[in-house]
Fold each of these.
Amino acid sequence: MFEVEDLSVVYPNGLQALKEVNISLSDIGICGIIGPNGGGKTTFIKGVLGLTPAKGKVTFRGIPIKKWAKKTAYVEQKRDLDLDFPISVLQCVLLGTYPALGFFKRPGKQEKKQAEKALEQVGLADLKNRQIGELSGGQFQRVLIARTIVQNADLIFLDEPFVGIDVKSEAIIIDLLKNLAEQGKNIFIVHHDLSKVRRYFKNVILINKTVIAYGTVKKTYTKENLKNTFEVLDNPLFS
Amino acid sequence: MIEALQTFINDLVEYPFLQHAFSTSIILGITCGMVGCFIILRGLALMSDAISHAVLPGVAISYILKISYFYGAVVFGILAALGISFVKHKSKIKTDSAIGIVFSAFLALGILLVTKIQSPINLNNILFGNVLTITTTDRILTEVVSGVVLLIIYLFFKELQLTTFDPVMAKASGFPVKLINYLLMIILTLITVVSLQTVGVILVVSLLITPAATAFLLTKKLSSMLWISALIGAISATIGLFFSVTYNLPSGVVIVLTATVIFLLVFFLNPKNGIFWNSTKRTKAHRFYQK
């Protein structure tokens, strides 16, 4: 059970980015977070994870989400990462083992094996020694997914993982994510391509400054709810 | 030149003060080289510039209070770092402006104090460094601080790597990202303060940035970047000190210029992505396609 109670985020400049979000979801599987640009999708994730100052309460299986940190994987939008950073593909995947290692311990043979196996799963075993900037957008996104696999997290948050990547990478990633979901992992994906929602997600959360609707795709992903989410009342396009 | 080198080596064997200057410079070259890697990867080059300039009033006040300049300098270095993040977070002023405001203010205050209190502090030495006059206390201080800093980098390499590359993922997974940031700021301040004697306030930033930036051009691995940067720092210190002693030049200035020459060589000539090779590659490709 994933529960959000009265989550609000106010930016330092006084702008209310997210207002009193209340959600209670069980059997999450892969859950899409859908909404217009600037509607607060990323802010929602950041608020939930405590990455941005937020009011409210978030629990997973009855335990405050902060206690799940080691079992939480977050992949931000890939454009936020420095692709010139001196790190190889394999090392980048190894970062996923760090949270479980604790202080003073370095990744050893076992961790390396895990990382190599994850790279095989995403189809990039050949490229393990490349510097991350030498990959295509899709390949790099797959590396980040491999890092998530290695982290063996129960809660996985992905911010726009399918933006600017090739069809093959997208197919590999969604297959792996579906696999992880079957293993009982809980995956949240910020997503804006409405055409694939039914194929990709079991649940959706529709957000525009607050939660408009949430629940299974079947029940929640309706024309009515979409209209409420994307309609801007004073926008002449919609009147 | 060979004669000068022989004299230098003879002097080095003969005079303990020269040995001390030599070992101190090399230790600092190594430590600054390693710390600098994290500084440039985090985009904190300007921040280190600010902290180095900001320690000056601390040096003057330490003299007034008759305590070791180390304490005053450290306090003011940390004050500057805090001041900058305060201005940045509490207003819409951007980081570079915040840095500009704080560091010029601190530097001005420092110069005012040093000139007005008629201290025996030699402003020239503080600004540009003179490692040859380093005292035993300062030398030991440098060694201890460098040792501690290197130990911290060794112990927390994993955390430093992760929080530098992907601080958001690190924070989401429970790493104390803020604490590590502060730790790095403190390291930066400490290393700046002990570098005062060797390269001076104005130039310490170069010892932090230039070897690291050179190493950044040469490698794809963070650990190799640290080692290469440390090596370049040590080489710059050695060659710099040689010229400083032989031609009676301020040590900091020559060390920094040596590091810069190494940077330029790598920038233009390194086989992987040097400007020179890239342009020849382009010309070759161009000719190929013209055919």
Amino acid sequence: MKKYLIATTLLLGLGAAGIALADDNDCRVPMADWQPRGAVQQMAEAQGWTVRRIKTDDGCYEIKGRDASGREIEVKVDPATLAVVKFEYEDDDDDDDYRGRGNAAPAGSGKPPANGLFTPGTAPVVQQ
Amino acid sequence: MKTLLSTLALTTALTVPALAIAKPVTLTANMNQYGGDGAYLALYVTDAQGTYMGSLWMAGGKSKYYEHLSDWYRATGGNTAEINGITGASVGAGRELKITLDLADALFDAGYELHIDASVEDMRDSPSEVVVPLTTKGAGQPVAGRRYIRDFTYDM
């Protein structure tokens, strides 16, 4: 009897774990521990970001706006600690492997690298 | 102070002529009708031993595809700082990419090579699709690519 009870408990436990895994929330914080929206705004401004919108998504706060250099960003933060959970550039459609890693500045928008191959300060002229 | 001055004089003497001696060079790549999406092309220079010296142009804006330009990626670790300000659109099948830039004279007739890595979505990667020694004699001579580039020429 005891054996069955242990087995059933184990199975139930596994089932619960399965349910927990199926839950696709990125953050799991009880509502009581959530910091106010104002704190998220402050944290974003401290990073130099311009906030367009703050909403909740997948159990996290989600900030939409621009980073200090003006690139569109979407950042998920932990509602309790305000730590960054996910950082994406909106102009970059990378979803998985390249989080937080941006594309290169297109020609004309930044200084070419001083790699000694071409005259510094001269940008290549392209026709295509 | 004296040391500083002489160091300054020396470094200026060494760098200024290198900067001054550069000439406009036009790089032209004509693409094959390979029947696929726009090709990503990395144009970069290596020395005679194959050591990466720097990039000249990156055709293709999304960094997630750069690993398919495998020789360039191996040399740079995919560091986008290498191509900031020298990145443009990918080049379609049958199209032409033409870039004019002030290339250092010291790169010519000194064993340096220009490489082009090419990659097309859902098609085979083609690292070092074109490898051409930079020589004054080689200017204006079209070189065939291996897969996606019909011919490549540098003119000065």
